[in-house]
Every structure is written in structure tokens, then in C-alpha cells.
């Protein structure tokens, strides 16, 4: 019994020492990244991520331009509303065109701005394209924006991320022929650690910075394109 207790004590102490060590490494690696400098490399990072990390967006866009892109998600309220429509048999031409797959909120979703059109892509559990919604110039100009705070940590692939890396969201609400449809815009692209980089904190943080730089620029570019899209 004494030996077991000693082993447990040693294991706990070793765990604490390891956590302190990793926290120090994290702080040191983070201090080497100048986000203001990184933001000046937006165009470079956007092209790099499209080529290496998100080539599927080019495929889904079928040759159309990608002026900006970021991650997205479906609010629980929207998922509930779509589900209620299905349950109640409510028919709405615009919303029925969107489909019922918006009830799934745990898979990756993306926004892509291309010219005067805004694309919302949702994926299935293996990352394949599941649904595409295209909002044209008319719907974007009538849309409303509001700040939604930090994304809940239990949603989607962010559930295992530490709080400081959770995205802040803005909610964009479209008028779908009299029925509101709300979707979320993230201020950074969803980042998932590569298992081979688990101990390479500097590489992880550099990658996260690129994801943040590209993602946070999306809203500014969208609002510059559509000046009437103000935050309520």
C-alpha cells in the first residue's frame, strides 16, 4: 500500500512539473509572435492556407474568386428553428431551399466571399461538402450584423481548445422572404492540432497566428464591400 501511494505521489508531482514546464514553453513561444506584424502578411497567408490547408475551398468554388474566407457555425437557435419547421411541416420557399441539414452544428463550416456573393459551406463528419448556401448581393445588403461574444466551448471542434483560442463570433441574419436566418462568422479559422506537432509549441502558435490573421480580416473585407452592413 505504501509503495502504491509513493508511486501515485511521484506521478502527481511529475505531472505538475510537466505542466509547469509546458506552460513556460507556451509563454516563451507566444512572446515570439508579433500579431501586428503577422497581420501585414494577410495576402500571403490567405494564399498559403488555400493552397496547403484548405484546398477544398478552391474545389468547392469551381474557379470563382476567393476574396476572403473564415470559419462559420450554425447557432443553436437557427438549428432549433429549422428543426421546428420540419416537425411542423411549415413551408417557406426561401428557407426550404436552404435545406434541413443546418440542424447539424458540430461539423466544420466556412464562409467564402466571392465578388458580390457570400457562400456558406457546411461539411459532414468526414469533412466532405454537405451543403452550399449562396447569398447574393440583394440578400447581403438587407442582412443585419450583431456581435455574439465568444463561441461556446462545447460547440464543434473547438471543444478541446483552451479558452484563449476560442473564436469570437458575429451573427449575420438574412431576410429569407420574411423569415430570418441567422448564421455565425468566426474571427479566426478553426485550428486543430496536428498530432505530430503536439510538442512543437512554436509551430502550433505560428500556425494559429496565420489562422487568426486570415479569419479576422473576413468581416472587415465584407463590410468594406457592403458598407451598409453595420453592427447593430
Please, could you describe this protein's structure?
With 232 residues, the chain is an alpha+beta fold. It has one domain (32-225). The protein contains 8 helices and 7 strands, in the order ααααβααβββαβββα. It has helices at 2-31, 35-39, 42-52, 55-61, 76-88, 93-98, 137-142, 201-225; strands at residues 68-73, 109-114, 117-123, 129-135, 144-150, 168-176, 179-186. Mean pLDDT is 78; it is low at 154-161.
Order of helices and strands: HHHHEHHEEEHEEEH
Q: Which class do the helix and strand fractions yield? A: alpha+beta
The figure for the number of domains is 1
Strand neighbour order, sheet with most strands: 4-3-2-1-7-6-5
Low-confidence stretches: 154-161
How many beta-strand runs? 7
Instruction: Quickly count the helices.
Output: 8
Percent in helix = 40-55%
- What is the rounded distance between the termini? 64 Å
How much of the sequence lies in strands comes to 15-25%
Profile the largest sheet. 7 strands, antiparallel
Please tell me how large the radius of gyration is: 21 Å
How is the quaternary structure best described?
Answer: single chain
Mean pLDDT, as a whole number? 78
Q: Any idea what the shape is?
A: globular
